[in-house]
Amino acid sequence: MGEQTHTQQILPEPDSKSQPETHKIESPAEPNALILHPTPPTSAVPEISHNPSKIPIRPPKIRKLSSPTPIPDANPSFSSSVTLTTTATLTAKNRRRSASQSSRALPPQIIKPLSINNEIEFALSHLRTADPSLIPLIDSHPPPHFETHDPSFVALAKSILYQQLSYKAGTSIYTRFISLFGGEELVRPNSVLALSSQQLKEIGVSGRKASYLYDLANKYDSGILSDDKIVKMDDRSLFTLLSMVKGIGSWSVHMFMIFSLHRPDVLPVSDLGVRKGVQLLYGLEDLPRPSQMEHLCEKWRPYRSVGAWYMWRFVEGKEGGSEGNAVEPLQRIEQQHQMQFMEPVNGIGNLG
Question: What is the 3-state secondary structure (H, E, C) of 87-145?
Answer without folding.
Answer: HHHHHHHHHHHHHHHHHHHCCCCCCCCCCCCCHHHHHHHHHHHHCHHHHHHHHHCCCCC
